Amino acid sequence: MKPLIAPSLLSANFANLQADIDMINRSKADWLHLDIMDGVFVPNISFGFPVIEAIAPLTRKPLDVHLMITQPEKFISRLQDLGVYMVNVHYEACLHLHRTLQEIKKAGMKAGITLNPHTPVVLLEDIITDADMILLMSVNPGFGGQRFIPQTTEKIARLKEMILRKNATALIEVDGGINLETAPLVVGAGADILVCGNSVFSVDNPEETIARLKEL
Ligand code: DX5
Ligand code: ZN
Questions:
Q1: Which of 35, 42, 181 to mutate to test the pocket of ligand 1 (most atoms within 8 A of CB)?
Q2: Ligand 1 pocket, 177 CB below 6 A?
Q3: How far apart are CA 101 and CA 94, in angstroms?
């Protein structure tokens, strides 16, 4: 199956976001991935609501929001107001994950659970059927342009096996170090959606790279 591609705005030119959003709109990208960092859950700060508010009306792709923040449940209604499609919260940041997923879905959005590289898939046994998506981090969250962690491939296969065994419908998204070399590995293991930051925004022809990633 061909993967969906979600370019990550973190690697865009922040001095001219309009140009990069226009490029994404023209491209074959399926979603736009937004990385929100609070400097507490991850050792970096990215952008927040003022930026999302500015770009939401400009983009024609569904917004896939990745919350790398503590207490993500505080922001569900503001994301709903902005017409966000998918809200990904970290397993490691949610004390009451089941409740948070239900609140996201009640607000009319899709609910995703994100796992850090060290968090085993087996912890999803009792929550997998409540999630619309599992976002597996293939780098430690906080920065773009890092190297893909190879164990992720096996982790995707284990997650895929759990989804099938539980009759769950969750999609699998992979985030970090995805490029034309690593994409075939993760798609072969069962990934449905690829987040691509550096590999899309650092090349001369991002639209062509997005098209090539989709054809893998
Ligand atoms: C990292 C973010 C990623 C990041 C991916 O914390 O979650 O979405 O933008 O960037 P690349 O594709 O460059 O690894
Ligand atoms: Zn991300």
A1: 35
A2: yes
A3: 10
173 lines ligand 1 (CB under 6 A): no
Please check the confidence at residue 188 and state whether its pLDDT lies above 80: yes
pLDDT digits over 37-57, tens only?
Answer: 999 999 999 999 999 999 999
Q: How many domains does the chain have?
A: 1
Tell how far the Cα of 143 is from the centroid of ligand 2, in angstroms: 9
Here the tokens at position 58 are 């400009």
- Give the domain CATH number at 172: 3.20.20.70
pLDDT digits (tens, 9 = 90+) for 114-152: 999 999 999 999 999 999 999 999 999 999 999 999 999
Structural element, H or E, at residue 174: strand 171-175
Nearby residues of 61 by Cβ (< 8 Å), 6 or more positions away? 24, 25, 29, 30, 31, 32
Read off the pLDDT of residues 20-29 as tens digits, 9 standing for 90 and up: 999 999 999 9
Provide the 3-class DSSP secondary structure of residue 4: strand
- Per-residue pLDDT tens over the stretch 11-21: 999 999 999 99
Catalytic residues: 35, 175
Task: Give me the domain span that covers residue 43.
Answer: 4-214
